[in-house]
Amino acid sequence: MAGAGDFDLYRPAEEHEMLRASVRALAEAKIAPHAADVDESARFPQEALDALVANDLHAVHVPEEFGGAGADALATVIVVEEVARVCASSSLIPAVNKLGSLPVMLAGSKELQARYLTPLAKGDALFSYALSEPDAGSDAGGMKTRAVRDGDHYVLNGVKRWITNAGTSEYYTVMAVTDPEKRTRGGISAFVVEKSDEGVSFGAPERKLGIKGSPTREVYLDNVRIPASRMIGAEGTGFATAMRTLDHTRITIAAQALGIAQGALDYAQGYVRERKQFGRPVGDFQGIQFMLADMAMKLAAARQLTYAAAARSEREDDDLTFYGAAAKCYASDAAMEITTDAVQLLGGYGFTRDYPVERMMRDAKITQIYEGTNQVQRIVMARNLP
Ligand SMILES: Cc1cc2nc3c(=O)[nH]c(=O)nc-3n(C[C@H](O)[C@H](O)[C@H](O)COP(=O)(O)OP(=O)(O)OC[C@H]3O[C@@H](n4cnc5c(N)ncnc54)[C@H](O)[C@@H]3O)c2cc1C
User: Fold this and answer.
1) How far away, in angstroms, is 2 Cα from ligand 1 center?
2) HSE on the CB side for 332, CA within 13 Å?
3) Ligand 1 centroid to residue 65 C-alpha, Å
4) CB of 82 within 8 A of CB of 25?
5) First to last CA, the chain
6) Residue 296: alpha-carbon gap to chain centroid
7) Which of 141, 247, 253, 304 has its CA 20 to 30 A from that of 376?
8) Nearest-5° Cα angle at 195, 223 to 371
9) 335-347: buried (b, 16+ CB within 10 Å) or exposed (e) per residue?
10) 65 among known catalytic residues
11) Residues of the chain with pLDDT under 50
12) How far apart are the CA of 139 and the centre of ligand 1, in A?
């Protein structure tokens, strides 16, 4: 017979449920009221940043030794999920803080960790992750950004594209080629670059379909000279660190997808109870009930897979690569379907900006694209079948 521990996998602990309740209350009170305006005016969700920092929820993954909350992977998922349920743009704050700083946590020296994780935990700095380039997206190993050793320094040159929170973040984990012969097999290294380093500048914000409140910009590195001590791990380990990071943080994107989908489902469920046609609430029609049932079923399946992946992230299990990719792919596909159905359930009203579901449908789309498109997730899964 299975022990109690086996069943605990299927029931979040009480402290996780308490965390969910408190983040939900905060998100509804302080973040939700600004979500439509943040989207409409494509502005940074400053109110969300302030509320998250005030409640120590902006970077919960940072260990206690650096002044962080030391939250586990599932707690991070729950924070991102609950923020995304009301505002996907705002959920990029805790999500990208983890993405940007995880390479330092996984592979950085203690000095590097203390120097960069402490201000992150305090809320004094945001952290971005700079892997992609104009001509190197799915094929990230095809990057051109170069880092050349010069005594005790490295000099970086290149262009990073699509960098979330670029210009807003103080710190950037930048992947650059240190040995063009070796590339992904030991020729790419990771560095911490600071916004204030000479030679760092940013492109204009991208004009996007969704997550409009999350700044996405190019990062230009023009002879940026940084101390060699800013290298994360040994020379040549940067690509492996970048990929290992994504194994963990794709679960955060799955969480974002869950949150967006839950927000759309909750809204649609309330709407069909109120909206009357043919003399009755449209929610009385079985055709509508079946749609809601399918939406809730897909969301429950996506959530179980995501939490199972989060447990694997916490334990650093061997099958994490498969589970991280599977959770991200499945949850984001589910979110796209659920948010599209939510628009359908509101009829013509769903198609307008007067209701939040069209924003949620636009926001859901990015979860199928970033941290590796869902085609790339399928490549990753196929190479790492459990
Ligand atoms: C809003 C936004 C925020 C982002 N934030 C960040 C960030 O913070 N940091 C960062 O480093 N990057 C970030 N990205 C970049 C993102 O990860 C890339 O856009 C993504 O990996 C895809 O790369 P690409 O856009 O170059 O598409 P491409 O690689 O050009 O792909 C084009 C199409 O071809 C498909 N394709 C490519 N190769 C294959 C294959 N082998 N088999 C089958 N299909 C394939 C893709 O799935 C896609 O459908 C962000 C992107 C966006 C849009």
Assistant:
1) 42
2) 28
3) 35
4) no
5) 24
6) 22
7) 304
8) 95
9) bbbbbbbbbebbe
10) no
11) 1-2
12) 8
| Contact residues of ligand 1, CB 6 A cut-off | 128-132, 137-138, 162-164, 208, 211, 216, 366, 369-373, 375-376, 379
Residue 338 in contact with residue 298, Cβ under 8 Å? yes
Catalytic choice (133, 218, 358, 371) = 371
Please name the residues in contact with 367: beta carbons below 8 A apart, sequence gap of 6 or more: 253, 254, 256, 257, 260, 328, 331, 332, 335, 336
Tokens of 13: 């602990």
**In 10 A of CB 237, how many CB atoms?**
18
Q: Which numbered atom of ligand 1 lies nearest the CA of 372?
A: 21
- Determine the residue of 253, 373, 375 to mutate for testing ligand 1's pocket, defined as the one with the most ligand atoms within 8 A of the Cβ atom: 373
Pairing of strands 276-277, 188-194: unpaired
The C-alpha atoms of residue 256 and residue 331 are separated, in whole angstroms, by 9
Which candidate, 114, 137, 117, 140, places its Cα nearest to that of 127?
A: 117
Query: How many angstroms separate the Cα of 268 from the Cα of each of 19, 158, 259, 265?
Result: 25, 46, 14, 5
Looking at residue 6, what is its pLDDT?
Answer: 60
DSSP 340-385: HHHHHHTHHHHTSTTSTHHHHHHHHHHHTTSSS-HHHHHHHHHHT-
pTM of the model: 0.97
